[in-house]
Amino acid sequence: MKAAMEKSATQIKDGGHLKTGQDKRSFILGIALLFIAVIFGIVVTVVLVFVPQGDSEMMTDEVEIIPVPPGPGPARSLELLGLGPKLGPTGLAKVLYNETLEYGSVFQYGAGNIQLVVIGDLDIMKDAFTLTDSFNTRRMVVNAMLSPLQNEGSTFQTSGSPWLEIRQFTGQTILQSNYLQTYIQPRIDQSVDSLMTSMTARQGSPFNPEWLLRVFFVDVNHRIYFDQGLVYDDDDDQAFVNDIFSCQKIVFEPNATMPASPVLRSQLPLFLNPLHRFANHTKLFASEALSSSPTPPTDHPDPESLVVMYERFISGLRADGKTTWSDPDDGWRLTVDLLFTGHSSIPQIVRWMSLYLAAYDDYQQRIVQEINSLGNYTDITYEDRFRLPLTVAFLTEVDRIHHHSPLGVPRFVTANETVNGFHVGAGTTVISNLWQISNDPAVWGDPHVFRPERFFLDETSSDQYELDADKLQLHTPFGVGLRSCPGEKIARRTLFKTMVALVQEFQIVLPEGIEADLDQTGDFAEPYDVKYVKRV
């Protein structure tokens, strides 16, 4: 009893309140929490009183979540992913345009690790592709197709520093006015003359011009790259053209532009044989061009073939102490790229052009009069194009309606970006619907009507035409931004000179009893016979 009383006495402190060890800890914790609460209250008061309203809004904006593009649900996305092989690029472009009517000019679809953003507005496209480098990378099945050849050095299929090296080279050659006028244009003229000779040999009788136009395209580029032309009836040259076409057919399959495509990957073994024959041909002619080129005698030598210019470019960088991704003799690699991706564009446009000229003879007669007013086609250059407004407008209108590259070249996004207010995450594939831009009723009014006069400043004038430069720029068949087609200027010069020569040299007519089918919805004009009748 005495011990218990003594124990109780030792617990009596601070004015008679009972304090155990646990109560002491609770008391201290309470004091600490009260202190924290007071400090927090002071901070909040200072913020509310002294921080301006604008700064408060800025702090809120910094954590604002940017929405992702709208788009269809999983079921429709899977359906869209499967439409490419069935519809082809133009058919798929039209379907994607219809999706924009519901979701807007920027929308998203996909499944799993395949996410695609489609852009169908030219201004949005220009902002995205020119203001940042994040959209200038390719990661597609076509890269895997070319990897047996392109696994080293700089090519148009590479990205980052190797790609910047190749762009620097093209800026000094095939995109540079002096090289285009002094070296490339004469080679185009030579090839056009060869085409006219072959056409003359077949004139008067109906025939399908597809094969001749394919050889013609390869011949143009062969002269530019190696300074050697093709022989139209040579078996080896014909086999070379066939190998290019065999490879290129797979490239125009829409799924080749996706990051992954099991169907196309399964075709790679069949693809490799023509690819290697195609590559061996370019290597051989590149080697011959380099061995026959003299050492430049001055610091400013005359322009030569593209592979020789490439050797000079890489050697010059190394002479300046710079590290290069390519070797001087790697020019054949970029010729593979250019032939591989562009083989069908010029033949396709010229085929459609011939069909429309035959169908619209009134235009054909007015165009030939316009061309004749400037003299012989051999003396007419690309720099004369604005003096031939109806010729240019007709050619542009044909390509607008039957777009030769309806979905452009897809881009792989390397960093998180914002497009038209929407978040586009790294790893997304971005598709440019170039067909939509050239066929949007909001821009063109009546896009399904063939009307070359839409490219004139005054459509009502019947005797004096003047091209509307702004309207011409609304048709973007070669894409926009740094990843636009590097061979655009070669293609434009070739198409212009080809049309001028064909119309001046031949009257283009369909066989008797045959009507032109201009409502075809596919990507290429269906096989047809046409007569090229020599003008006298």
Description of the molecule:
This protein is an alpha+beta fold and 536 residues long. It folds into two domains: 65-139 and 406-438, Uridine Diphospho-n-acetylenolpyruvylglucosamine Reductase, domain 2 (2-Layer Sandwich), CATH 3.30.43; 150-405 and 439-534, Orthogonal Bundle (Cytochrome p450). 55% of the residues lie in helices and 7% in strands. It is built from 22 helices and ten strands. Strands 3-4-8-5 form a four-stranded mixed beta sheet. A two-stranded antiparallel sheet has the order 1-2. A two-stranded antiparallel sheet has the order 6-7. Helix 7 (141-150) packs across helix 13 (268-292), helix 11 crosses helix 13 and helix 16 runs parallel beside helix 22 (488-505). The chain is globular and about 115 Å long. The N and C termini lie far apart (141 Å). 38% of the residues are buried.
Helix-strand blueprint:
Layout: H1 2-10, E1 12-13, E2 17-18, H2 21-50, H3 53-61, H4 74-81, H5 84-103, E3 106-111, E4 114-119, H6 122-130, H7 141-150, H8 160-172, H9 177-202, H10 210-226, H11 235-251, H12 262-266, H13 268-292, H14 306-319, H15 331-342, H16 345-359, H17 361-372, H18 389-401, E5 411-412, E6 417-419, E7 422-424, E8 429-432, H19 434-439, H20 441-444, H21 469-472, H22 488-505, E9 506-509, E10 531-534
Parallel strand pairs: 4-8
Antiparallel strand pairs: 1-2, 3-4, 5-8, 6-7, 9-10
Helix pairs in contact: 7-13, 9-10, 9-22, 10-16, 11-13, 11-15, 13-15, 16-18, 16-22
